[in-house]
Write a structure and sequence with these properties.
Strand order of the largest sheet: 7-4-9-2-1-12
Mean pLDDT: 93
Oligomer: single chain
Distance between the termini: 35 Å
Helix content: 10-25%
Largest sheet: 6 strands, mixed
CATH architecture: Sandwich
CATH class: Mainly Beta
């Protein structure tokens, strides 16, 4: 009898990584890479197995002044990282607002997988000549839901605000966060400071099915 070869079916994360690596291999310009990556992330967000698995992802809980991200994948060659961000009941208080921040030098694609939240964007108005000082003004405030994707370029200022329901996002970063400082903004006092980005908690995307 002929041996039957068992072909392992790729899951949605493996398909996304394969497409991202192929894109990055043929396109070296960062702006082109990250504007062209959105359709692959859209496919990942639309996968029903990913959404089902996300029901079991642990809540991300800020601690010691730092946010938390789930780490699903970090690429050994191109350096991009696939993160999850879950905001459960504990994140709904105090207006549900994350700190206003930037991501320093990295590109980020932020995709909503489940739930709704508001995304606020800010413009910086000062000339950046004074340390510990920044004047920012809200430029947009948009309610986003499942399947919507936001490209955050280096040093763009923003925050997310919960609206009373559990939200889950998948975030693709050009470099894993947590190992470098990011900008923080307090518009009430025109304050600017820097601190480390989110703690990284390794989690299997489909580990609890």
């Amino acid at each position: 009898m002929e041996a039957i070869m068992e072909v392992k079916k790729q899951n949605a994360l493996e398909r996304f990584v394969e497409k991202t690596r192929a894109l990055f291999a043929r396109e070296s310009d960062p702006e082109k890479r990250w504007t062209q990556l959105a359709p692959a992330l859209a496919e990942l967000l639309a996968d029903p197995e990913v959404k089902a698995a996300s029901k079991h992802w642990p809540d991300c809980v800020p601690r010691d002044g730092r946010a938390e991200n789930l780490l699903f994948y970090e690429d050994p060659d191109f350096g991009f990282a696939v993160n999850g961000l879950t905001k459960g009941e504990a994140r709904q208080g105090n207006g549900g607002r994350a700190r206003i921040h930037d991501h320093a030098h990295i590109y980020t694609l932020y995709g909503v997988l489940d739930g709704h939240e508001r995304v606020e964007r800010y413009d910086r108005l000062d000339d950046r000549s004074k340390p510990d000082y920044a004047v920012i003004k809200k430029a947009s405030d948009v309610l986003v839901g499942p399947g919507e994707i936001d490209l955050v370029r280096p040093y763009e200022i923003h925050t997310e605000v919960t609206v009373g329901e559990r939200t889950v996002a998948i975030i693709i970063r050009s470099q894993k966060g947590g190992g470098f400082n990011q900008g923080r903004y307090n518009p009430e006092k025109n304050e600017y400071y820097e601190s480390l980005g989110p703690r990284q908690t390794p989690v299997e995307m489909f580990g609890n099915r």
